[in-house]
Amino acid sequence: MNITKIGIVGAGVIGAGIAETAARQGLGVILVETTKVQLEKAVETIRRGLKKAIGRKEVAEKDEDLIIGRVQLALDIQALTKIDFVIEAVTEDERTKTDLFSKLHTVCPAPAIFASATSSLSITKLAKASKRAPQVIGMHFMNPVPVMKLVEIVRGVQTAPETIQAAKSVAERMGKETVLAHDFPGFMVNRVIAPMINEAIYSLYEGVGSAQDIDRALKLGANHPMGPLQLADLLGLDAVLNSLEMLHRQFGNPKFSPCPLLVKYVEAGFLGRKTGKGFYEY
Ligand SMILES: NC(=O)c1ccc[n+]([C@@H]2O[C@H](COP(=O)([O-])OP(=O)(O)OC[C@H]3O[C@@H](n4cnc5c(N)ncnc54)[C@H](O)[C@@H]3O)[C@@H](O)[C@H]2O)c1
């Protein structure tokens, strides 16, 4: 399968990021949203991303319009009738995604592959709803997509080897590196990061050390580029709490139980950088 154009459904934070990344690498994109306003916002986001990339000398200024021109906008998935590789990056809600997959099944060519950008839902369940389970896979992009190198490829129980190969080659075509995960809650990245952050919060809660010292300890002692509490502030404390609650619910293992201090901070609206206060002030 030689993919030169992809469909992306959902043009929020991740969908716009995937569109920018794909277009920068020369792939054609059809970006589908529910409203014109959201599509316009996505184009602005892509333009802002490109300007930053131009500033970093990763993109030539003369290529800006060419790259934007590779992103075709649409308000209906009917625009995807000839597309062989579709990535859904719609709202993280199982019903929204299963509805979309069953509709895409009736619109896209029979061999088309559907990838989901979900960070927490079961790929196996989404695949079943699509009615073409062997052709469904997870592509867990990291935020911000144009900057982060990794795409976690997630194989559902019925995902075919050819689908894994196609997803890997699309990710590589976008300049990304991949790892292959089986479909278990949190895949690899969130499953490891969420309890690490939780343990750092417990260390603060139990008075083992200050926030600054916990972060310094991991940066200098474990070579992490950023301390776990700084990372929590960057990701958003609400997002960290959601991840832990999902892992706790799905594994039923108390090791994922969120630290009471994290719960209190979220209740107080201390969500990290986005609210100006988390474990640090901004
Ligand atoms: N934000 C992150 O840090 C992050 C990281 C990795 C993965 N993800 C995953 O990426 C996906 C998207 O997350 P996001 O943060 O970009 O969300 P978002 O809320 O920013 O964007 C979702 C977009 O989907 C659109 N949408 C909803 N239903 C639609 C439909 N039927 N057709 C077309 N568009 C539709 C919404 O209008 C919205 O613009 C989720 O599955 C999420 O778990 C997010």
Descriptive report:
The protein has 282 residues and is α/β, with parallel strands linked by helices. Helix content is 48%, strand content 14%. It contains 11 helices and 8 strands. The mean pLDDT is 97. Nicotinamide-adenine-dinucleotide binds next to helix 1, helix 4 and strand 6.
Unreliably modeled segments: none
Output the CATH topology of the largest domain.
Answer: Rossmann fold
> What's the helix-strand series?
EHEHHEEHEHEEHEHHHHH
- Please, what is the average pLDDT? 97
For the structure shown, list the relevant keywords.
282 residues; 2 domains; 48% helix; eight-stranded mixed sheet; single chain; Rossmann fold; 11 helices; binds nicotinamide-adenine-dinucleotide; N-(1-d-carboxylethyl)-l-norvaline Dehydrogenase, domain 2; globular; alpha/beta
